[in-house]
Amino acid sequence: MAKKLQQQRRLLLKGIAASAITPWAVKADSVANPDVVIIGAGIAGLEAAKTLHKKGISFLIVEANNRIGGRIHTNNKIFGVPFDTHAHWMRASPDNPLISHGRSNGFDIYRDYGRQQYFVGNRQATTEEMTDLWKTDALFNKRIRSSALSGVTGSDDNARTALGEDFFSQPWGYTVASEYGVWDMAQDSKDWSPKSWWNSLDAETWFCAEGYGSVAAHYGRAIPVSLATAAREIDWSGDHVVVTTSAGQIRARAAILTVSVGVLAAERIKFTPTLPVEKQEAINAIDMAVMNYIGLLFSEDVFGFGSDSYVYQQQTDETGVGYLTNTKNSNLTYGYVGGSQAKALERESMDTVIAYGLDGIKSMLGNDVENRFLKGFATACGKIPLFDGAYSAVRPGKSGARAILGRTLAKKLFFAGEATHGTQASTVNGGLESGRDSANQAAAYIKLNS
Ligand SMILES: Cc1cc2nc3c(=O)[nH]c(=O)nc-3n(C[C@H](O)[C@H](O)[C@H](O)COP(=O)(O)OP(=O)(O)OC[C@H]3O[C@@H](n4cnc5c(N)ncnc54)[C@H](O)[C@@H]3O)c2cc1C
Prior knowledge:
By secondary structure, this protein is an alpha/beta fold. Among the domains are: 2-69 and 220-287 and 395-448, FAD/NAD(P)-binding domain (3-Layer(bba) Sandwich), CATH 3.50.50.60; 130-198. Helices cover 36% and strands 21% of the residues. The strands form 6 sheets. Strands 8-7-18-19-20-17-21 form a 7-stranded mixed beta sheet. A 5-stranded parallel beta sheet has the order 10-2-1-14-23, sandwiched between helices. Helix 3 packs parallel to helix 16 (428-448) and helix 4 crosses helix 10 (212-219). The longest helix is centred in the N-terminal third of the chain and has 22 residues, at 127-148. The chain is globular, with a radius of gyration of 23 Å. The site of flavin-adenine dinucleotide has 40 residues, from helix 3 and helix 16.
């Protein structure tokens, strides 16, 4: 018991120490036993904290990692220039507070104009080939739309079936399928659902020269967070929620859980009582897709297409690499791989993966490009136990699972995080909105029962 008290005291001290440098007034006795405990300081948890703070509800936020931001993080050390290891594209729709926050705090936020260049082997595509590409793109949209709107409730082909095998025998079939599939949703076309793709919001995108992760860290910098504090068990059996963490127990009137669906599926947190069957089924119906970056730093803009240009080579399957080149004129290229190929590459060494990314560029520009190559780095988000993958991907035919995952239990255990969002799942925006919504509901519950 003494140890437990000491641990609670440690949580208390951490909370107060962090809040002392900020305007976040936290009553000492409410930190160890807050109104609301938030689990996870990714964007959902940070936004939940901001929302509760505005409403005068006390909270404690615990984060297993030694930093905030979760799946939004910028690393400046690897290349000496900003490298986003997870989210990089800032989606603007319908609004994104991180974009306005970045702008008003001096970050260099600039538009992604989607400048694309296509190669066939080691040369750029001709005008005729480009016309053919746009026709294939139109066919893709027609077939996916028709499948998504087929109207039969509960029926949902996978994208491969919806597109048909004749689509993949066209010269640009695999390229177009890769752009929408493995390089965006991080799933092979046999695995993604046209219905959920169709129902997700489109958005224009922006970049931040200092990195998306830098903006997120700045956005959450004033929030008192107990870092390196992992939730191990959530007991929601009584009138309070008791969370056992690696640093002691927290008793709160409500909890907001923001960990990824991958963490839930791996049962890294024990629930007492166990989760209802429908909740467990929803967790099992949503996969964590894997998307990884192969960062490649050159001594110059090797393609010569200018800043932030996309380069795609005609593909013959879904194992290829897409490239965003020369980000903000830093000579850093993001190669991206998704789906089953990303999972396969996670079993290889870092050197092998870097060579895979570099080979794709060599096959377009020639072997000499290696003379201008300085350094590479490959991410492996499927191997990070705090995430277990990149972002959620609902299985075809299971689109109702997100709503069930997001359902509150016993009026006081709230489920947030990107995977619970109906139209913006798998994005920063979805995580942020889910955190805000859950916090509003938790605040209403606390006020009603005060
Ligand atoms: C490679 C990659 C590329 C992406 N690209 C984009 C993009 O370009 N644009 C975009 O909008 N989105 C992108 N995303 C998705 C986006 O990053 C996520 O949807 C979003 O950041 C999720 O936020 P979240 O708060 O829901 O979850 P998380 O960020 O996962 O936050 C949950 C937090 O819980 C913590 N945690 C886990 N277990 C415990 C525990 N037991 N106790 C306490 N804390 C715990 C985790 O450490 C984490 O900090 C990308 C993701 C990846 C991985």
